[in-house]
Amino acid sequence: MANVIDHLPEIEGDEALYVGKLFSDLSDEQASKFASVYRSRRKDPQTVLITCILGFFLIAGVHRLLLNQIGMGILYIFTGGLCLIGTIVDLVNYKDMAFQYNRGVAKEIQSYV
Fold first, then answer.
1. Is the pLDDT of residue 1 over 60?
2. Structure confidence by residue, pLDDT tens digits, 9-67
3. b/e string for 61-94 if b means 16 or more Cβ within 10 A?
4. CA proximity to 41, closest of 95, 110, 101, 112
5. Which DSSP string do the residues of 1-31 spell out, in sequence order?
6. pLDDT for residue 52
7. Which of 10, 78, 97, 100 is 20 to 30 A from 52 via CA?
């Protein structure tokens, strides 16, 4: 049984709890493989926040494209972040958006390991 803190010390909060549940069934070798793939594919909430803030000044929707929400990203680009209202909502919810993306990545990786 592997410990999530040993393999992924950079994650915290709900993400650490969720990945910890996934780690409970993995051996140390499987946990190391999971951690290396997960670390390369996960999105940091701070990166999502920074790209969302850039939506106010440059191009809105880049954070949605970063999270593989292509349709919403294109909609945000063409509508100016839904007249900046959508961008403001995303600024408030950036951690949840990153967690949802990372949770999907973790489920996908677990099916491979």
1. no
2. 899 899 999 999 988 888 889 989 999 999 999 999 999 999 999 998 999 999 999 99
3. bbbbbbbebeebbebbbeebbbeeebbeebbeeb
4. 101
5. ---HHHH-TT--THHHHHHHHHHTT--HHHH
6. 95
7. 10
